[in-house]
Amino acid sequence: QKEVEQNSGPLSVPEGAIASLNCTYSDRGSQSFFWYRQYSGKSPELIMFIYSNGDKEDGRFTAQLNKASQYVSLLIRDSQPSDSATYLCAVNKGSGAGSYQLTFGKGTKLSVIP
Amino acid sequence: ETGVTQTPRHLVMGMTNKKSLKCEQHLGHNAMYWYKQSAKKPLELMFVYNFKEQTENNSVPSRFSPECPNSSHLFLHLHTLQPEDSALYLCASSQDYGGRASNTQYFGPGTRLTVL
Fold it and tell me: Which of B98, B99, B103 is nearest residue A49 as measured by Cβ atoms?
């Protein structure tokens, strides 16, 4: 079982719509969850992180965490063409050796159509 | 300069060459990381240094040799690489390694490495 799974996409949404990106993880002890955005040919940049169950909002972005179901999602409201990128989900492994390491998913490619 | 910088940005080398990648962070952080990003694979953590001490080595082949002379600089020395080592090598830094502070990692622009 892959540790962090994301649908590779591409996910296409029209401009102005809500984009919903999902991520599941296998380590039930995971404690911290991150979303990074990576434009083609560029390095990942942190969008937001979430530690507690529920929703966390930052501008047009909302992260949702459900530890019982082991998933974390990212909603992008009023999607813009500039949001077109690959979105990486990253999870802190939680406990044991290397517990402070981030484990990344392969990423979901988002395309916002004008 | 600000943030995390990496040089060179692009590198082409033969399998018998020796080269080094350099990373420098200007954020006052104490932890630095090397990641490998290959096509269609997740980011793979290679090494972690915290306060100049190597904390993690994720079973990386010995042809990759890291060096961290101080908290601001990180090197990755390369020798006798294989074509499958071609990838984007990313450096990152965080406040320290341990607890939640380690999770907020800031990435450099990466070095695109091609091994012929």
Answer: B103
